[in-house]
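Quarterly update from the structural biology core.
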Amino acid sequence: MLPDAGELAEELLDLAVPHEDINDLVRMGRRVCDDPELLGFLQGAVAELVRGLGEISGGADLPELDWPAGALQRCFPLYAFVAALPHVRAHHRARGIPAEVSRRTLADLGRNMAAHRRRYGRAGLLAPRWLTLHFRGELYQLGRLQFQRAPLGPRTSDALRAAGLDVAAGTPCLNLHIPDFLGPLSPAACDRSLALAREFFARHYPEEEYPVAVCHSWLLDRQLRRYLPEGSHIVRFQERFRVAHDDPEPADTEPVRFVFGDPDLPVAQLPRRTSVERAVGDHLRAGGHWYIGHGWFPWRTAEKVPAPGADDSKE
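Predicted structure, tokenized:
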């Protein structure tokens, strides 16, 4: 199920796992392979992860290891992801997906571990279920942004129908995500990412039509405009989207989690080093709330590009 120690270390490097964690993960990997109970549990986790590989399902729920709290319990999903790599890469090859796109997409595992260490100061995976999207062929990293093949939800589809679009709940769309640790969210970086995505999905998923791209994020909360200059990257990002609907439930921990790394930090102690930090903290300290914004824009795909190896000579 797992490669030997040397190959495992190389796989972890390719997945952008923090270097300080690799020795311990290799050591624990040997323990997993030598323990029949752990190995059987790993086999079940991999089977769940790759079941229906490539389908739009919103990810998979990996079984939780019933094991004493500790490094192995925190990191066990990583071994399921590594063991699933041959299946994932075979699926990517069948779709003609470039190796560099595959590598950068799956490297979100290392980003997730970095976020866990930032929050807790130790090795672990912060959101294993989120990573199942990457390893099931539902989400791809294309430049600065990530694009998830997803169904429209009921509230968003209602809003889009009211705007005149012929869609329904369950209609395929592209759900945009903004990963951390990847530089500024500049307009140029976003333009490049969208251009890459238009070509990517037309080439590698020609059978799927996406009438719209959507985004559900605290970064689309229009209150940010009160605090940030008009030309800021976040404001420029918001301008790409039309409002789908308003969310009445406060989500104050979301910006605290993404900006400061820990949703449980006391509001009174939030730093004020950057304009975004000042915006998030000052608004909360003044008694305000933050909300998840829901935005969309039409997805006008470029002319479909033949898949690699396709015969273009037919008239």
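The longest helix spans residues 71-94.
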